[in-house]
Amino acid sequence: QVQLVESGGGLVQAGGSLRLSCVASGRTRNINIMGWYRQAPGKARDMVATITSGGYTSVADSVNGRFSISRDNAKNTVYLQMNVLKPEDTGDYYCYARTVVNVEGAGNNYWGQGTQVTVSS
Questions:
Q1: What distance in Å separates the CA atoms of residue 3 and residue 103, rounded to the nearest whole number?
Q2: CA geometry: angle at 80 spanning 76 and 64, to 5°?
Q3: What does the CA dihedral 62, 37, 50, 70 come to, rounded to 10 degrees?
Q4: 93 strand-pairing partners
Q5: By C-alpha distance, which of 119, 88, 91, 87 is closest to 18?
Q6: Going residue by residue through the chain (121 aa), what tens digit of pLDDT does each one get?
Q7: Quick one: how far is CA 62 from the chain centroid?
Q8: Which residues of 28-40 are buried (b: 16+ CB within 10 A; e: fewer)?
Q9: Which of 14, 51, 61, 83 has the lowest CB atom count within 10 Å?
């Protein structure tokens, strides 16, 4: 049982910046991966960036160099710093967490409710 709450979305002009935050609560002890996915209207939900509890990051090619992900394990919080935003970045951004509960690597996936990001031309 993990709850994820996102914040920081909004409306910005192209070239602007936003920082998204996601706070995990509940049974957070076994969370390994946290990250961000986004979904544009009429399209599938795609990975934006992920980070492990050890600090290893993975970033989608479409945002590499513009977005960065970070994590504060003590606060159970993951951040997505978005710079040089483009209209194609518009969509709903969802926080993601995965727990690992046994030696085989089995775990559970958790999703936040999403926060809307709109980038105007």
A1: 24
A2: 135
A3: 90
A4: 38, 115
A5: 119
A6: 899 999 999 999 999 999 999 999 999 999 999 999 999 989 999 999 999 999 999 999 999 999 999 999 889 999 999 999 999 999 999 999 999 988 888 899 999 999 999 999 9
A7: 15
A8: beebebbbbbbee
A9: 61
Residue 16 pLDDT:
98
**Regarding beta strands 45-51 and 18-26, do their DSSP bridges make them parallel or antiparallel, or are they unpaired?**
unpaired
Strand partners, 47: 37
**Amino acid in position 32:** N
